[in-house]
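Thought: the user wants the 3D structure for the chain below. I'll pass the sequence to the structure tool as-is, report back what it returns, then summarize two notable features.
Action: structure_tool
Action Input:
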Amino acid sequence: MALPPACATPAEGQRPVLDSLLIPFRAQPQPPALPAGYGLSGETPPDPLELNALLVACGDPSRPAERLRRALERSSWQLSLRNGAGALVGFVRVTSDLALNANLWDLSADPAEPEQAQLMLVLVHTAVGRLRRELPGCSISVAAPPAAQDALRRHGFVLDPGGIRAMGLRL
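Observation:
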């Protein structure tokens, strides 16, 4: 039986021949809605003192402003979430070798915000989506707080895959 050419229209009730040749990609979660009154931006990094206040509110130890400024400068890009009053309520920054690896750092959403879980979903979805567009195929790692684990799992992250554990050194 000869197969019709790839551009042929299938007969009624038949599936196109190319369906069997397509590689299924893992389904991506639906884009989460940014709650009303919040804004997401990657244009200008936040002030280091403002970022430090958010990180401390999320349970991180305080960091010197100069150290945060250098980290922001050396990042590939960052995303900031602000509430209606303009306060920084969410943040993530990315570093990468621009080839095989990318790292999400300082992933945080203010626990005092009533929409914390949704803000975390927006940050993770936006960051992972941008990395997939700009660096397809690179591996993405993240050291995340417990508040981020649900959002990360929804986007395919696996906690300690194969028993691999990340290690960090505080300088």
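Final Answer: Structure generated. Confidence is low (pLDDT under 50) at residues 1-10, 15-25. Helices lie at 48-57, 65-74, 116-134, 149-154.
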